[in-house]
Description:
Largest sheet: 8 strands, mixed
Order of helices and strands: EHEEHHEEEEHEEEEEEEEEHEEEEEHHHH
Distance between the termini: 27 Å
Low-confidence stretches: 145-161
Shape: globular
Strand content: 25-35%
Oligomer: single chain
Mean pLDDT: 90
Structural class: alpha+beta
Radius of gyration: 22 Å
Number of helices: 9
Amino acid sequence: MEKTTCAIAGGGPAGLMLGLLLARAGVEVVVLEKHGDFLRDFRGDTVHPSTLEILDELGLGRRFAELPQHKAERMTAVTDDEELLVADLTRLRGRHRAIAFVPQWDFLDLLADEARRYPNFTLRMNCEVLEFTGSGLRYKDKGQVTAAKRGSPDLSSGGPGGRPPDEEGAEHVLEAVLSVAADGRRSVLRRGLPLREFGAPMDVGWFRMPREPSDRVDPFLRVGGGGRLMVAIDRETYWQMGYVVPKDSPAGDRAAVGAAVAELVPWLADRVGEMGEISTLRVQVNRLRRWYRPGLLCVGDAAHAMSPVLGVGINLAVQDAVAAANLLWEPLVKGRVSTADLAAVQRRRMPATVAIQSLQLLVQRRLIAPALAGRFSTAPLKALSRLGPLTRPMVTLLAHGVRPEHVRVPERP
């Protein structure tokens, strides 16, 4: 039996940001991450100005800027007949006027490295959380069998920071004043909490395509006839492509996807043979009616699974973490957190979650579903384009969300 003040399930954007902020405030934190590293392709990696401002407030802006990334100032939609500019982030006020596309593993490494500066922060990899016991987390520890970070030393021997590998995994219980579910949309900890499902008309097959220096820049949405949609994101050295298909349809058929690439994006046709493996995202949109129970709080996708529409998942998760840290660090320092404290976090974040999910559902219903059914109309996109494209308030909503959070947590010894 181990004890800590705050036990966090999940080393994603929400879990690591919350762990970092609480450790800054002097709270003892243990983050349990299921995998042995952060190296998984096609996770959310769209970092909006709201998150960039938080990194600045933490003194991490310069280090983030040094990560491999592509900054997109504009977003376009390409139809069979024309190209429409639908979002221009240069119209924003403030320092950050672009969206940064950065591999999520680099972003998570940055947060983890900063959190490790604090001796009261612990990140344990290969620790799969099994359940909330009512007083903490029961988890299976398979040891540090892989490096937690690219370029880090092999910790499989149980050296500094590592634990001996255990193929089966020994079970442990980590007692905590507060346990946090930041373990994503498949969270095992949110079971039993009331969940509202909204559904989605699509799934997405993600894959890589080679990129040439002469290719265009900035992300775009390609809308073709016959109910076909494709997203392309410039990753500097390759294109990250997303082929949108009707819900529960096969998204991993290489021949079908390759043919769609050749027809929708003909300047990539000669590279179809070099297309990478296809990873299918089964899209969900849902949220908990109640994000907490005594001793447990859900944040990020564990509290509200987001559609990939608008690419806001990371940013909403980070905002949840900042709000939770702002509201809970003092109760945690005192060693007691009430359900009223946890309810305050939900009250703070629920309006923003509802607003963004409502916008995503509107886009799914008015744009994506008709397009997949072969009934796509360019009228909504043309209307957006005629707005300037998008008025400053709309661009600000995209970049900063409804209720942007700011770091109020002090850095305490």
